[in-house]
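Appendix B, record 7
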Amino acid sequence: SIIFYDPPFDFETKMVENEISLVSELIEINGHLIIHRHSSSESIQLPKFYEIHKEKKFGQSAILILNKI
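C-alpha cells (predicted):
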C-alpha cells in the first residue's frame, strides 16, 4: 500500500508526527508513506514502525518516503 501525505506547509511538526502515527494503521507492512513538506520544516521524529527509505529535496519541497516495518 502507498499513502501520500501532503499537509499544509505551516502545520506544526508535532501535528504531522501525530497524523503519520494515525495513518500507520492503514498501511500494510512494507507499505510506503510519502510525505511532502517544506524544505525548511523541522525534522520529524519517526515512530518505531517506520524507517526512512529515501529523502530528497527539490527547491522548497522535501519528499520523505517511509517504509512501514
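Remarks on this record: Helices lie at 13-23. The first strand starts at residue 2 and ends at 5.
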